[in-house]
Amino acid sequence: MTREDTKSRTRVARRDWIEAAYQELARAGERGVGINALAARLGVTKGSFYWHFKDRSALMGALLDRWAHERTDEMLALTLGSTPDPLERLRRIQALGREVAPIDRAMRLWAQHSPEADEAVRLADRALLGHITRCLDGLGLAPGDARLRALLMLRAWVGGYLVPSPDGEAPGGDSSDRTLEIFLAKPAGS
After folding, report:
1. Would you state the pLDDT for residue 170?
2. Number of CB atoms found within 10 A of residue 156's CB
């Protein structure tokens, strides 16, 4: 049996194409997601791709849907749903941000030149911002302060993986706890 015979007999589902593209998006960015490379990775022909998707744009739309759903629903529910403690929830959001940094970074770079990706990032950020704000409200911050600090926290966390540490410090650990302490500190004179 030739390799082509094997390829023609391998069946992959739509979700397999999306998962392979998602992994490639995290690894190489939006421009690195190519049909030929994905077919080779999955061990199938391009015909399999066209069975599931009209074109690359349809695949990229499916990637946006998956990312938005995962970011706003699944991961936040898993991360936040099991504890009522707002401080622990903030720690979990911060840790989650480090975990999803490669795909999140790829999405933000893609959003710089794609209105569809930009909208997906904005929707996901609004949902995350709402979660962070509710945590800060739960810690007793005034509503205006909670919203501003939530926005600053989100920007700092995203910036943490978009801008590497000049001294090579790895993200996480004690510096993450200290960063959270700084964001939660009361302003001088309060």
Report:
1. 58
2. 15
Alpha carbon distance 154, 133 (integer Å): 10
71 or 51, which is more confident = 51
- Number of residues assigned to the chain: 190
CATH number for the region 56-190 comes to 1.10.357.10
Q: 98: how many CB neighbours lie within 10 A of its CB?
A: 15
- Domain residue spans in the chain? 1-53, 56-190
Task: State how far the alpha carbon of 56 is from the alpha carbons of 20, 31, 86, 115, in Å.
Answer: 13, 11, 41, 16
In this prediction, residue 70 carries a pLDDT of: 80
DSSP code at position 30: G
1-53 folds as Arc Repressor Mutant, subunit A (1.10.10)
DSSP 8-state class, residue 170: P
- Element at 177 (helix H, strand E): helix 174-184
The answer to whether the CB of 93 falls within 8 A of the CB of 158 is: no
Question: Residue range 120-139: average pLDDT?
Answer: 91
Helix 101-111, helix 143-162: angle, nearest 10:
100
Give me the chain's average pLDDT, please: 85
